[in-house]
Each structure stands twice: as C-alpha cells, then as structure tokens.
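Entry 14. Structure prediction run on the chain below.
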Amino acid sequence: MKRNQLILDEENDRRLREMASREGKSLSEVIRQILDEYFAERERKERERSLQALRKLDRIREETARYGVYEGDPVNEAREERDAEVEDVWRQWS
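Output returned:
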C-alpha cells in the first residue's frame, strides 16, 4: 500500500468519520472501499459502453451485409476516370 494525504472539506470529513464509526472501520478503510466501488462502477460503465458500440457495429454490419462487399479498387478507379477526363480535355484543345 501507498500512503497518501487527502484534504477534505468539513462536510465530507464529517460524513466519512460517521460512516467509519457506524461500520466499525478506520477512515482509511472506508475511503479505500469507496474508491474500490467507484472504480468498479466506472469500469462496468466503460464495458457497457464498449458493448453498446459493438452491438451498433453488429447492427450496421447486418444491415449492410445484403449489399455485399465491393470488390473493386475505388481509389484507382477514380484516378483512371480522372486521367481519362484529362486526356479528353487535352484531345479537345490540341
């Protein structure tokens, strides 16, 4: 364990001391417990957000699956189309 110093306002100090007294724990134990619960809840929410994002991606994948995968090379196709247009312009002006 590591030692840390914590500065609290009067209200939080009072509430923590009351909680520690009620539970028969030290102030440090109560603070560690609160931090453990906070981090566990935060990790749960992060996992849930990740799962929601994956579910959205699955829905998108299912919705777009009927269109299939484009087998062409859109970058090269656009480049070839542009080159053909440039060539046409050169022929017209030559």
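The helical segments are 10-23, 27-65, 74-93.
Filed with the rest of this week's runs.
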